[in-house]
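sanity check this:
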Amino acid sequence: MAKDKMKYGKNICLSAAVMFSATVLSVCAFSYVRGLDGADIIRNTVMSGIGIFTVLLFMAQAKAGRLFEYDNGEHMLRFMVVYLICLAFSFAIAYLPAAGWPYLAVFVFLTLFSNLQTGICAGTILLAVSILLAGHGAEIFVLYFVCGFAGASLFKGLNEAYKIGIPAVVSIMFLLTGETACVVLYANETLRPELFLIPLINVIASLVLLLIILRVFYALVIYKHRNKYLEINDQECALLVELKEKSKEEYYQAVHTAYFCERISRLLLLDVNAAKTGGYYRRIGSLRGENTWETVSGIASEYAFPREAVRILREFLDKTVPVRQKETAVLLMSDAVISSILYLLAKKNEKMDYDKIIDTVFKQKLESGVLKECSMTLEELYRMKSIFKEEKLYYDFLR
């Protein structure tokens, strides 16, 4: 943990220094190149400095990366690279006609590799830089800010399902409508077919850039551990086969726990693969003697488990580490519910009140305070409880 915090701190400091210096110095230089007078150069430099400082505050507040989505908190240098690309893009855009700025893609790009607040803040600062350098009015800023905000919000929370159709169509419709209102009609006060040429080029360019960005995002973030998860979450994986040979009871309990981890995580839009891995391997340490975090971490390192899965297993097993991940909460509840039902089924064979058992498990876990630092909301907890209660036929299958 101490090493992770130190590494995170170093990455934050390096990213902050590079992003701040690059923004302030390049804005000052491009303002001079654009032929602006001294007062405008000072204004642009100071305002860009204040803006990037605000972005860095958002980054600093994402303590240990917990406020950044996906694994972005562990890759601050990756976000720095994305920001620098968008910064260079903002200077190039200033030389294009106002109707041809593909800022929708910029907002989405920054948001996907950080989080909604940081992405929108960074996109707004870069948009302001382009506006100041190009000398356009407030209507252009409002147009691209609103469209960028909408696009970033629509693409937030993407998962393996790759459902980008509706967000893409809605974002593009927002952009086309905004271009018509703020550029074609407002700037020209008339409606002629040729006036739509540049806005249509912008729409096409934005769509192409969005598709490229989404491909890069899925390759670097969503699918980066896909093959590894396919390997370790296969019931024919060597570890699971070894567990089955040692104890069929432990093996089948792991299978049932993984089933609920997968189902609940999918419905709550969480990291399905990492949660499922936690379900399968939460007691894998028994293969090497004692099921402690030290034993499990050695196995996870030997089989190169993805970092997200390792984090969940540590929060589940290491009592010195608080439960913060929603996926860990799903694992805790799944393990407790399955263990309780299997235990009671082994003691008595008559029909049981599954709802009462589930209510009791949730009450005990909440009263224990184990989830007091978890990011899971009460709404998500109630949703999870209702999912457990919907599975009565599954519990009967366990008899």
Observations:
- The chain has a mean pLDDT of 90.
